[in-house]
Amino acid sequence: MLVLAQQDSLIIEQLGEDLADVEARFAEELRSDLECVNDLAAHIERYRGKMLRPTLVLVSALACPKEDGEAASTSDAHRIIATVAEMVHMATLVHDDILDDAEIRRRGKTINNLTTNETAVMLGDYLISHAYHLCSSLPDAELARMIAFATNTVCEGELYQLHNRGNFALSESAYFEIIRRKTASLCGMCCKLAGYINGVDEAVCETLYGYGEKLGIAFQIVDDVLDLTGDEQTVGKSLGRDLEKSKLTLPLIHYRETSSAEDAAKMVEVLKRLSNPELDVAEREKHVGQIAIDLREHASVEYARDVASKLIEEAKESIIACLPKSAAQELMLSMADAVLSRDF
Amino acid sequence: MLVLAQQDSLIIEQLGEDLADVEARFAEELRSDLECVNDLAAHIERYRGKMLRPTLVLVSALACPKEDGEAASTSDAHRIIATVAEMVHMATLVHDDILDDAEIRRRGKTINNLTTNETAVMLGDYLISHAYHLCSSLPDAELARMIAFATNTVCEGELYQLHNRGNFALSESAYFEIIRRKTASLCGMCCKLAGYINGVDEAVCETLYGYGEKLGIAFQIVDDVLDLTGDEQTVGKSLGRDLEKSKLTLPLIHYRETSSAEDAAKMVEVLKRLSNPELDVAEREKHVGQIAIDLREHASVEYARDVASKLIEEAKESIIACLPKSAAQELMLSMADAVLSRDF
C-alpha cells in the first residue's frame, strides 16, 4: 500500500480500516461451496497489489463533502464499489496472463502458475461475474451501469492494443487512446463514483473523474517506462515484455518521431527481431539493453516522464480548485505524487 | 431457431418479432467507436446459434400471467434480459474456444478463427461487460444481481469441470453437478426472471426456474451424447472432443459403472491414450469410433437419453401443473420436446 508521511493520522487510520474491510469483502464474495474453486481463488492473492483503485474510491469519498454538508465519510456503498473495482482489476490481471501459442513455446508455463490457459480464463470470468454480483447488491442500478461502462472501455482499450501489436507506426495519440481506455477509465470511474455516492453535483463528479483518469494515464506511462528501463528486482517482473509483444510505448514513439530516419528504421528492425519467439535469451537481453540506452541518450525516457509529471500537476490543480481543503484532499495530492515516484 | 408446427400463429409471430428485437439490441449494445472492435464483434455472428436462452425468457414471459391478471405479454425488460442472457452465453462460447498449449500444438489455429488466444479472451470479456452494462439499464438492480448469481454458478461449473479433467473416476452425481451449474443455471434463471418481471409469486418463479434447469440439464446430456455418437455434419463440429479433453460424460460413466471391471479398465486405457496430443488422426478416429460402438452396444447411450427424457417429462408436468393452459404454455411443452429431438 501507499506509504505516506505526515498525513493526518485519523485519515490514515480510517483508510487502513476501510482497506481491510475491502479485503474481507473480497474474500467473502468469492467464497464457493466447491473446494476446487476456493483453492483457485486463493491463487488470486498473488495478484493482490497496491490497491490503487480501492484507495482512489475511499480517498475521493473522504475528500468530497456530502450533499447535506455533513462531514465526508466512507459508507458501505463506497467500500462495496472499492471491492468491485479491485475485483475487476484483478480479473484483467488474471486474463493478461493468458498466453498465446508463441509465448507458450517460449516461456513454457513458468509465467502462469495456474494449471492451464483455460483455468485462467474461467477464474478471471469468475472474478468479473462476482464483481457484478457484488455491485448489484447496491439497489441503485446506475452504479453497476457506470462500472460496466468503465469495463466496456477497458476491454476496448485492450482490444485496440492487441489490434496494434506489431504496428511500429503507432501514433502518440493512438497510444494515449489505448492507455486512457485500458487503464485510466476505471481509475477515473473509481473517483467519480465516490462523489456520486456522496451526492455531489455533476461538475464535481466530472472533476473527480478527470483526476482519476490523469492519474491512471500517468501510472501507465510510468509502468511502460519501467518495462523499458526499470530494475527487474524493483519492478518485480522481467523487463522488455512490451518489446517482445511489439507493443509500442511512449518513449519508443518519441524516439521514432524525433531521431534520424536511419536511427528510427534501425530501432524498428530491432523491434521486429525481438518479436521472434525463437530468439535466444542472450541476444534478446542485448537488444533490450541497447534500446534502453538509446532511449535514455535520446531523452525519450525523460520526455515520457515529463508527460506523466504534467498530467499529475494538472490532476492536483483540478482537485485544489474543486474540493475544500482537508486532510483527505492532501492525501489525494500525495497519491498523485506517489504515482510518479512509484511508491504505488 | 426452433421449428414448431401447429402452434398458435400469433404467438409464433410475437416470438419472431421479439427475437428480431433481441438481435437488434445485441448489435446495438456492442457497437463501438473503434472500428477494430466492431470488426471483432462481427466475428461473434458465427457463434450465433439457436437462441435457446432468449427464447426461454420470451416464452416464459408469455406463458405466465401478470400480477394484475392482465393477459401475458413481453415487455422491454424481457427483451433486455433475453439479450443479456444471449450475450453471456456467447461470451462463454468465445471463451470455450481458448486453447491450451497441448491443443495449440495439435490443432494449430484452425479451431480458432480469431487472431490469438488473447483477442478471444478480451472479446469474451467485452461481451460480458456489455451484458452487465445492458442489464443495468433496467432500474431494478435485483435483475442484474440474479443474472450475476447465475453467471457465478456457470463459472463454478466450468471450473469444476476443468478440475475434473482426467478424472476417470468421475461420479454420476459430480457430472450432474457440473452440468447443472455450467449449462442449466442460466437456462433456469432465464425462465425465472421472465416470471419475476411479470410479478408472479415466488413459487411460480421457482417452478419456472426448475423447468429451465431441467431443460438445460437435458440439453447438455443430449449435447454430450452427440459428441460421442452424433454425425459430424449434423452436429456441426468434430466429434470426440470431450474424449480428447478427458471429460467424462454420462454414457461413459454408465459404461464404467455397469460393464465388467476388465471392460471398464480397457475403456479408461483408451481414454488415456486419446488424451495424448501426439496421437495421430487415424488412430484417434479408430478409438473414438470404437468407443461409440461400445457405448451403444452396452445401452449406455440409451441410458443417457432416457435420463434426459425423464427430465423433460418432469419439466413439462411442472408447467402443466403450475401455469394456466395457453398457446404459450403449449410452446413451452414443445420446446421441452425439441431439446430431445435436437430441433434446437
Structural description of this entry:
Two copies of one chain form a homodimer. With 344 residues, chain A is mainly α. Chain A has one domain (9-227, 312-341): Farnesyl Diphosphate Synthase, CATH 1.10.600.10. Chain A contains 16 helices and no strands. The first copy, chain A, has helices at 9-30, 35-43, 52-63, 76-96, 101-107, 117-135, 141-163, 172-198, 202-229, 232-235, 241-244, 250-258, 261-274, 281-297, 300-322, 327-341. The longest helix of chain A is centred in the middle third of the chain and has 28 residues, at 202-229. Chain A starts with 8 loop residues before the first helix and ends with a helix. The interface between A and B is large, with 53 and 53 residues.
Quick description:
Chains A, B: One of its GO terms (molecular function) is all-trans-octaprenyl-diphosphate synthase activity. The structure is a homodimer of 344-residue chains. Chain A has 344 residues and is an all-alpha fold.
Distance from first to last alpha carbon of chain A: 7 Å
Could you tell me the CATH topology label of chain A: Farnesyl Diphosphate Synthase
SSE order of chain A, as H and E?
A: HHHHHHHHHHHHHHHH
Q: How many domains make up the 3D coordinates of chain A?
A: 1
User: What is the mean predicted local confidence, pLDDT of chain A?
Assistant: 90
Provide the low-confidence segments of chain A as ranges: none
Largest sheet of chain A: none
Approximate helicity band of chain A: over 70%
GO molecular function (chains A, B): all-trans-octaprenyl-diphosphate synthase activity; metal ion binding
Cofactor (chains A, B): Mg(2+)
Family (chains A, B): Belongs to the FPP/GGPP synthase family.
Keywords (chains A, B): Magnesium, Metal-binding, Transferase
